[in-house]
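Long-time lurker. I teach an intro course on protein structure, and each term I like to show students one example going from raw sequence to a predicted 3D structure in token notation. This year I'd like something fresh instead of my usual example. Would anyone be willing to generate the tokens for the chain below so I can use it in lecture? Attribution to the forum is fine with me.
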Amino acid sequence: MKENKQSVVVAMSGGVDSTAACRILQERGYEVVGLTLLTCEKSLSACEEAAALAARFGIEHHIADIREEFQANVIAPFLQSYLSGITPNPCIDCNPTIKFRILMEEADRLGCKYIATGHYVRTVRDGENVFIKQGADNKKDQSYFLWRLSQEQLRRTLFPLGEMTKEEARTLLKEVGLTE
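-- Reply from a regular --
Happy to contribute to a lecture. Here you go:
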């Protein structure tokens, strides 16, 4: 990592939201490192797409193969709950225990101070405490997915899309020739 910039590991899916998050953080002067979580065989194409976007932005890119852990700790419990008549939301379990944990582990390994995602949420700081707040785009708000994040996770996480709408994120990428 470069010593003169603050560094951040961004969860990159290859989609509009994570790509816009990378772009915004670069514009704010962060050294961005992309991380794609390989959760299943179908996500191989997302890894390739994220790697291509990272290359286009000059971003270092890594892939974390979490297929076994994801299957055991997200997919299997989801299926069991569903078959038991419960309507589960796997993101609520995955975010604190897998996604954000792995982002933080990779950030530590790579010497990055922060992690970031393309969630449309904002945070409010009150001293050492950080609270999740609804994103500016009430059609895209994702705060309810993140209610189980720990204070340690929240203190290290940047949500660069929190003040934007999805349309604004698309426009940002259009301006740099990434969307139509």
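Some talking points for your students: The radius of gyration is 16 Å. Strands lie at 7-11, 31-38, 60-65, 114-116, 121-126, 129-134, 157-158.
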